[in-house]
Automatic annotation (TrEMBL):
Chain's role: Thiol-specific peroxidase that catalyzes the reduction of hydrogen peroxide and organic hydroperoxides to water and alcohols, respectively. Plays a role in cell protection against oxidative stress by detoxifying peroxides.
Keyword Phosphoprotein on entry: no
Official protein name in the record: Alkyl hydroperoxide reductase C
Quaternary structure and interacting proteins, as annotated: Homodimer; disulfide-linked, upon oxidation. 5 homodimers assemble to form a ring-like decamer.
Organism of derivation: Shewanella electrodiphila
GO molecular function, one term: NADH-dependent peroxiredoxin activity
Domain named Thioredoxin: residues: 4-159
EC number(s) per entry: 1.11.1.26
Length: 189
């Protein structure tokens, strides 16, 4: 990436997702008005990917309680997502939309396309209700992500968004003290 994606606005897209047993249209408009996670992974029917998507499925109810919608994305088609959902117990428990991006347009918009392979890196992007990216995390293919750590990051992003002038220190958890940056804190932390 030549410039940071943080605070950029999601680019327009149009795709089809497999969601709740149906094929549904999804666009950037669906991500507006609520907190959203766009969760890229390399491919269906692979190895690390189902562990990540299953972990996200296990945390989905918590994210929904927080007002967050999750969208998984790979360069597979929505048809492949349906087949994987039907054939894997782990993937079968997914209740969030699984977006097919066979042209790679969405994957390129987020800067996570591996061009020579036509696959996505492991990229996680959290957007606020205005569609601005507030969290971006990109992993190499062999490094799986943690949904519980993602939940904590979203809690921090939501807290900062509603508490002007406050910031969350490292490993902050809801209910813990935050910081109010000022000259008085310089050199004291």
């Amino acid at each position: 990436m030549t410039q940071s994606i943080i605070n950029s606005t999601i680019k327009p897209f149009s795709a089809t997702a497999f969601h709740n047993g149906e094929f549904v249209p999804v666009s950037e408009q669906d991500l507006l008005g609520k907190w959203s996670v766009v969760f890229f992974y390399p491919a269906d029917f692979t190895f690390v990917c189902p562990t990540e998507l299953g972990d996200m499925a296990d945390h989905y109810a918590k994210l929904q309680e927080m007002g967050v919608e999750v969208y998984s994305v790979s360069t597979d088609t929505h048809f492949t997502h349906k087949a994987w959902h039907a054939s894997s117990d782990t993937i079968g428990k997914i209740n969030y939309p699984m977006i097919g991006d066979p042209t790679g347009a969405i994957t390129r918009n987020f800067g996570v396309m591996i061009e020579e392979d036509g696959l996505a890196l492991r990229g996680t992007f959290v957007m606020n209700p205005e569609g601005e990216v507030k969290v971006a995390e990109i992993h190499d293919l062999g490094i799986g992500r943690s949904a519980s750590e993602l939940v904590r990051k979203i809690q921090a992003a939501q807290y900062v968004a509603t508490h002007d002038g406050e910031v969350c220190p490292a490993a902050w958890q809801p209910g813990e003290e935050t910081l109010a940056p000022s000259i008085d804190l310089v050199g004291k932390i």
